[in-house]
Amino acid sequence: MSAPSLRGLWDDAANSPFESTIPKDSQFTIATVLLLTATILTSLFGLDLKLKNIPLYAIPAALAFGFGSVFMICAVGVYV
């Protein structure tokens, strides 16, 4: 079997538009909850800076901030 061509992948993608798993009308709410969660977890980590608290507070806070930021950008839109 040969590998699919880039042109074939492009044409297939044009026939199946992207549909988000999170509906557009709930992205703002989810983004707000994630960003508030990130703020709370970051504050808790700042109160007790120990190595054992990194997987408990810091990593979930970083993930919540990252996903929350992306959802907020998607929810409010980017205008050029």
From TrEMBL:
Listed Pfam families: Ost5 (PF05251)
Membrane topology term: Multi-pass membrane protein
Main location: membrane
GO terms under cellular component: oligosaccharyltransferase complex
Cellular localisation: Membrane
GO BP of this protein: protein N-linked glycosylation
Keywords per UniProt: Membrane, Transmembrane, Transmembrane helix
Sequence intervals crossing the membrane: 28-47, 54-79
Function summary: Subunit of the oligosaccharyl transferase (OST) complex that catalyzes the initial transfer of a defined glycan (Glc(3)Man(9)GlcNAc(2) in eukaryotes) from the lipid carrier dolichol-pyrophosphate to an asparagine residue within an Asn-X-Ser/Thr consensus motif in nascent polypeptide chains, the first step in protein N-glycosylation. N-glycosylation occurs cotranslationally and the complex associates with the Sec61 complex at the channel-forming translocon complex that mediates protein translocation across the endoplasmic reticulum (ER). All subunits are required for a maximal enzyme activity.
Subunit structure and binding partners: Component of the oligosaccharyltransferase (OST) complex.
Family designation: Belongs to the OST5 family.
Protein name: Dolichyl-diphosphooligosaccharide-protein glycosyltransferase subunit OST5
Source species of the chain: Dissoconium aciculare CBS 342.82
